[in-house]
Design brief:
This protein has 13 helices and no strands. It is mostly helical.
Amino acid sequence: MIKYQYSLLFVLTTALSSILISATSSLASPALDLFLSTLIATLYFHLINYNKIISLYKKTFQYPASWIGSSVLVGITWLCTFYGTSIMGAFPFIFIYFIVAAIMGLAVLVMSDKDMSIWQVVSGICLFGTIILFVFSQLPVTHIYQYWAGITFAITAGVAAYFYRKVIFIFTSNTQMTTSQVLALRSYFTLIISACLIKSTDFTVLDSRVFLHILGISFFILIFPLYCNQKGIMKAGPEVHSIIAGSCPFITCILQMILIHDIKVSFLIYSFAGSLFLVLPSIIPLLKKVKT
């Protein structure tokens, strides 16, 4: 269990942060939110590694492909997350995002495991079917193009997040950097793209309330969850971490019901089904052992 503790913490903190993004999305534009919160997080990780920054950049330049790749992938993931969550709300985005990443992780495990279980294949098929059913069951009567834009953001974020975990695992293994050191260096693409998307009118909303909101995003959405995400990838491996992270929709649904009283039975059913299909390959062998 210790091996997976950071993956589990990532699930909990991400569920909380997605609800916060959705609930406060009207305070500032997604681009401004993302740029300022990423800037604060990047400065924070630079400050706590100030005595090693030069050597860290020297290491980074030795592996430019994996560094640039991870920076681009994390930028895509966060852009899609901020825009997608503001369009769809916390649960629908998180459900599609994490289940897509989990399916990819499960598929890689199946293809690379010579002793794969048929239940791993069944699990992947069921997860895919669950996403398709969810997407078409939630089709709105109006704002249909906005809905499909949110779906596209969620799927893109899930795919990018999975490949980020693969690339950053390679980068971290090669450079032997700590989690905080990696997080200090990987957000430049996010900063550049989000800065380009900011409109001049976006700054008119900046006041003490909005600044506190962005400061909260920096620490509770970016700094701590990102730390847990990075540690979870290195401890559990990118595939297993992606599968564990797939339980995030269920936790998000429960917390959304408790914290903001947004109760939808259909969301609870879909999230429970998704979590059940994720653990199916592990549950079936245990049940067989109990029977024997």
